[in-house]
Amino acid sequence: MYSSRKMQQSSKPAWWQVLCSVLAAFFGVQSQRNQARDFAGGRFWPYVVTGILLTLVFVAVVYLLVRLALVYATG
What we know:
The structure is a single chain. This protein is 81% helix and 0% strand. By secondary structure, it is mainly alpha-helical. The radius of gyration is 18 Å and the shape is elongated. The protein starts with a helix and ends with a helix.
């Protein structure tokens, strides 16, 4: 009974689990247990959307850091 309830809950990961999985993918580290959970859900759109959003945030942060460095370098 408990294991079947746990299986139903684990089939749809929470938003923070998706975020952690995408961040782990950014760094290239992922536990085999989390990878199995991610692929068992059957839905990949939350991971795609989260990955695109995090990529945009990363590019924006790098852009702002470069702009800031150029401002301080020129004067």
